[in-house]
Amino acid sequence: MHKKECVAMLLAGGQGSRLGILTQKLAKPAVPFGGKYRIIDFPLSNCNNSGIDTVGVLTQYKPFALNSYIGLGSAWDLDRMNGGVFILPPFVKEQGGEWYKGTADAICQNINFIDQFNPETVLILSGDHIYKMDYSLMLEFHQRKKADATIAVIEVPWDETSRFGIMNTDKEQRVIEFEEKPREAKSNLASMGIYIFSWSVLRKYLLEDEPNVDSSHDFGHDIIPKMLAEDRNLMAYPFKGYWKDVGTIESYWQANMDLLGEQPELNLYDSKWRIYSANPPRPPHYASATAKVKNSVIGEGCLILGEVENSIVFRDAYVGQGAKVKNSIIMPQVHIEDNVVIDKAILGRNTVVKQGAVVAGKNVMGQQEIVVLDADMIIPPHATVEESISCSPAEDDFCKREES
Amino acid sequence: MIDLMGIINLNEADEYLGELSRSRSIASIPFAGRYRLIDFVLSNMVNSEISNVGIFIQHKYRSLVDHLRSGKDWDLARKRDGLFVLPPAYTKTPMQMHRGDVENLYSNLDYLYQSRQKYVVIAGANIVSNLDYREVLDFHKNTGAEITALYTKANCSTHDCLRANTLELGPEGQVLEVREFRDSGGYQNMSMDMFIMEKELLIDLVKNCINNGDYDFVKHCIIKNVNKLKVYGFHHQGYVARINSLQSYFQHSMELLSPHIWKELFFKSGLIYTKVKDEPPAKYINETEVTNSLIASGCYVEGKVENSILFRGVKVHKGAYIKNSVIMQKGNIGPGVILENVICDKDVHITANKQLKGEFTYPLVIKKGRVI
């Protein structure tokens, strides 16, 4: 194997349980986003655009959709002769096998994988965030500061600091204190969950942490605090730009809506920093003479006869005549029949809403809730749906497989 | 595994498409919002399980080679078989007069010898359809024909049949005569200039042609031999767009705005593949008005678009009004611009408040890369 300057390790094994129905059948990084993408497209495209060509993807929770999506990595130009993308599930060793017990443990179990590239640095990424970032600038910063570890940080609003891991730094951007979800924050620099470690240093800490039964084997909880305690050179790399955690239904919905409008903070139309993705062959979408589409993103192969407003519509969706789709996320192959009303909803892949049905969230204390419908459902004609429905357990009347 | 190989023979006369074919072959003319004409015949072959495709190219092939590259986007980058791009292999000097496509087939006979399939389908790129060659091969075997010629029935009073060949058929469907279309109107059996035959027969036809000093594949290899060989016609019933003039290009583009044609052409017997561009989905803002139009990925539409086709990455600024027009890739239509019956080739930039108008029967074509 050729020596690599930097190897990226992408933590893609989390369940993402706060995304509920959306992650019932697939891992969070495989959740569709923005009318075309999946969440993992963002870190993988960032890697390619930053010149990082060796990426290990650590998978654990329901990996089938994710594995087949990643494939050889050709969608992100990561099908390389030296390097490329590697899917790394937990595996059995001489003393038996174990699940990944935490973020640090996942890396620790793959020390041999990283060693074969003999890298200077390891970049730790997660599959939870929507952002465009040039990791090569952070790497340069890490090298310039001769850091043992560099943590990417972003300024968050002061009233939200209690939701994040907060880094307190000195004038030279050196991290002097790390506080997980502090009640009274001293700084508003939140960790983005993106780390660069010098591999020789991280390797040592991982091996020390591994036998410790009291450790949760987590970067934020265990590795970073221990490095701080031992006075290692930890630097905070300030990132400016759009960055959104899509860990909950609300933040996922909001991040999609953030793409709308005339000057969205996250520009997907920049040809110098493309977000790559699988490109299923579909024709341009068709908007008929009766169609009214406003402030929306529409994927390929859609057939739009009705009204679409403030919405994200993925490929191959059908919106019938007189139908009104508002403030919603419509996943691939959803079929919305005539005169249906959809308001503030997330419709799962391949779901059918029969004519005249209404899918709209209830107003709770002046705030409309988000309705999430699972994939492969059939909503009967003229039904009213106000609450999220999932297809498992399979007793539900709305599931396609029950009908067939 | 199907025992059929594909040959795409690019020998279409390109002088009738004017500006659109000035610097590219007919095969690489952009069509339907994101494709090039060759994508249709090539995808049909791939969807018919053909895994060995030879593309015989003649001239102006820079954009075509750039489009096809390894053939990966059509799943034709293979270890066994795959895509073969075959330019003329000159036997004497590169400056010798090139008279026709048979010479190109002849100079690449080695490719045919080395291919392991028994049957071959040979087609051009200017006929847009979605069809399954497996059905045609079954028909070919069942009739015991030596050559099967595909044809459609077209109403030549309303469609452009010029420069196409018509078939005269016997009661059993055998082809009695092939001749160039004469302006007689009404429904005619129009040849699609697609043929299935055994590879050995194709090699014989090509060799005989060369021995006789002939050079045009359809005229000399097929038409001249119609009475000597058992030739049957296969009636393709689906939608066909014959692109043989600027007017027919424009007319067939506009036909795509009818959803049943859109569905048939893009989904019926298989999907149409093309070079991948990684464009984001199309975007509309509050002022956008789009009706009866095809909008490709990467488009950013702020203005009004009516009965039109926008290719990938087109930007339409506020107050612009595009009517009955085709805007190819990366077109930039400035604020307040009004376009009607216009075809903008790739990378055209129309600056603010310009008004350009053609006629439906004579669309105005703006040259690639022009700034107006």
Describe the structure.
The complex is a heterodimer of chains A (404) and B (372). With 404 residues, chain A is an alpha/beta fold. Helix content of chain A is 18%, strand content 28%. Chain A is built from 9 helices and 34 strands. The longest helix of chain A has 11 residues, at 199-209. The radius of gyration of chain A is 22 Å and the shape is globular. By secondary structure, chain B is of the alpha/beta class. Chain B is 21% helix and 29% strand. In chain B, helix 2 links the parallel strand 4 (52-56) and strand 5. In chain B, helix 3 packs across helix 6 (199-211). The interface between A and B is large, with 37 and 37 residues.
The helix content of chain B, as a percent range, equals 10-25%
Apparent shape of chain A: globular
Q: Which chain pair shows the most residues in contact?
A: A-B, 37 and 37 residues
Q: How many E strands of chain B? A: 28
Oligomer: heterodimer
- Supply the helix-strand structural class of chain A: alpha/beta
Termini separation of chain B comes to: 52 Å
What are the SSEs and their pairings?
The complex is a heterodimer of chains A (404) and B (372).
Chain A (H helix, E strand, L loop, with lengths): L5 E6 L20 E2 L3 E2 L2 H9 L4 E5 L5 H7 L13 E5 L3 E2 L2 E2 L5 H6 L2 H5 L5 E6 L2 E3 L3 H10 L4 E7 L9 E5 L5 E6 L8 E10 H11 L9 H11 L4 E5 L4 E3 L3 H9 L27 E3 L4 E3 L2 E2 L4 E2 L2 E3 L2 E2 L4 E2 L4 E3 L2 E2 L4 E2 L4 E3 L1 E3 L4 E2 L4 E3 L2 E2 L2 E2 L2 E3 L4 E2 L4 E2 L14 H4 L1
Parallel strand pairs in A: 1-4, 1-8, 4-5, 10-14, 16-19, 17-20, 18-21, 19-22, 20-23, 21-24, 22-25, 23-26, 24-27, 25-28, 26-29, 27-32, 28-33, 29-34
Antiparallel strand pairs in A: 2-3, 6-7, 8-13, 9-15, 10-13, 11-12, 30-31
Chain B lengths: L3 E6 L20 E2 L3 E2 L1 H10 L4 E5 L5 H7 L13 E5 L14 H7 L1 H6 L4 E5 L3 E3 L3 H11 L3 E9 L9 E5 L5 E6 L6 E12 H13 L5 H6 L8 E5 L4 E3 L3 H10 L3 H9 L14 E3 L4 E3 L1 E3 L4 E2 L2 E3 L2 E2 L4 E2 L4 E3 L2 E2 L4 E2 L4 E3 L1 E3 L4 E2 L4 E3 L6 E3 L6
Parallel strand pairs in B: 1-4, 1-6, 4-5, 8-12, 14-17, 15-18, 16-19, 17-20, 18-21, 19-22, 20-23, 21-24, 22-25, 23-26, 24-27, 25-28
Antiparallel strand pairs in B: 2-3, 6-11, 7-13, 8-11, 9-10
Helix pairs in contact in B: 3-6
